[in-house]
Amino acid sequence: MAGTKLRFGAFIAPFHPLDENPTLALERDLELVQWMDKLGYDEAWIGEHHSAGYELIASPELFIATAAERTKHIRLGTGVSSLPYHQPLMLADRINQLDHITRGRVMFGAGPGALPSDAYMMGIDVAKQRDMMDEALDALVLLLRGETVTKKTDWFTLNQARLQMTPYSRPSVEISVASQVSPTGANAAGRLGLGLLSIGATSAGGFNALSSNWAIAEAKAKESGNVMDRSQWRLVGPVHIAETREKARENVRFGLEKWLYYFREVAALPMAPQDGTDPVDAMINSGLAVIGTPDDAIAQIERLQAQSGGFGAFLQLGQNWANFENTKISYEMMARYVFPKFQGLNDNRETSLNWARDNRGEFIGQAMMAVGARVAQHVAEKGAENIRPEILAAMGLDKKTDAAQ
Fold first, then answer.
1. Is the sign of the CA dihedral 292, 294, 298, 299 positive or negative?
2. What confidence score (pLDDT) does residue 397 get?
3. How far apart are CA 101 and CA 106, in angstroms?
4. Coil vs helix vs strand at 212
């Protein structure tokens, strides 16, 4: 019997350095999602950011609407909508509209907001963002199920609020909560029975917190009468693969340093060593990133499975370390050589080949007997003297031999 398929996708913030044309950068993000759709990827998650110049998509909903028109199968999620930035009814209405126009291909990812500079521009206290996320999420879950909500907080009011259109997906669009190291996302997912989106799964802190965060989610779900589903747990990590490790390392030199600059100087995350060590070596050796071959990607996913206890989807971080052509090749190699390992795509093919190989002697013998019988029948009907010599030779016969028989 066929087993469970691990799903594959991408988490596209995206990241684009300041020396590029932003219009073309956005177009390339759309082209990447189209390429993923063609290759059979299951999902793409699109970020929301409003400052710092690198993560260019301000409205994942607008991007998803555009991408949905250009694709056929891939599911598209907000990765993630920053809940403190939105009045819950307005956000729920936009997501519900996408649910209808995509015929159920949209997913809703929720989080508190990643960039403090975004919150600052809107006058939002960073210390309150997680509480605001919880308050908004309580309302959004009900609204997206088509229920009526009356709720008042110190930053939004809902008076008998409900969506005009019944949700296309039932009971609602799929909802996932962002999680990194802190238990905030795990608590929210368990309390409301939602999926979990572990964005920093391969960082040291995120990797070490995988099993504990899932345990927190399960405990909170049990308290709330919910059940967590590992198939709705998604893990995110950077990957770039090529035919050889050397080529992969060469490819990422194109954009890695600019990406690291953004995290060192703007996002203020310690993504690379400061002591002059080769950052490629550091990222590979720490387990943060795969920069290598399909076998290295397989090993990373197996490592995550062992640490987490099992999950439903692996999402590549859309980091743009390589140029676009090499990025597309990396995604294609994932689809060609990594997907089959975790989706059982070649199990039946391997069984069929081994069966045919193991019984080859019998099958070839039967085939030769069948051919020999037909040859003998033909000679008997036509007579050897009436068959040209070259044809008899091809049959392994000659007139003298045939006459003797």
1. negative
2. 64
3. 9
4. helix
* Stretch (H or E) spanning 161: strand 157-161
d(CA 390, CA 206): 74
∠ CA 87-93-94, nearest 5°, is 95
- Asked if omega into 80 is within 30° of 0 (cis), the reply is yes
* DSSP three-state, residue 236: strand
- pLDDT (tens digit, 9 = 90+) per residue, 309-360? 999 999 999 999 999 999 999 999 999 999 999 999 999 999 999 999 999 9
Instruction: Name the H helices within 174-313.
Output: 184-192, 204-208, 210-224, 245-252, 256-265, 279-285, 294-308
Query: What is the pLDDT confidence band of residue 380, given thresholds at 50, 70 and 90?
Result: confident
Q: What DSSP string runs through 1-41?
A: ---PPPEEEEEE-----TTS-HHHHHHHHHHHHHHHHHHT-
Distance of alpha carbon 343 from alpha carbon 378, whole angstroms: 50
φ and ψ at residue 250, rounded to 5 degrees: -65, -40
Stretch 379-403: mean pLDDT, rounded?
Answer: 66
Read off the pTM. 0.92
For residue 84, give the nearest of 51, 53, 116, 52 by alpha carbon.
116
For residue 45, give the amino acid letter.
Answer: W
162 exposed, middle or buried (CB, 10 Å; 0-12, 13-18, 19+)? Answer: middle
Q: Is 131 exposed, middle or buried (0-12, 13-18, 19+ CB in 10 A)?
A: middle
User: Rounded to whole angstroms, what are the CA distances from 252 to 66, 147, 284, 288, 323?
Assistant: 29, 48, 12, 14, 8
Exposure pattern of 2-15 as b/e (b: 16+ CB <10 Å)? eeeebbbbbbbbbb
Tens-place pLDDT, residues 288-298: 999 999 999 99
Enumerate domains of the chain plus CATH numbers.
7-350 (3.20.20.30), 359-404 (no CATH)
Q: Which amino acid is at 65?
A: A
Looking at residue 405, what is its pLDDT? 44
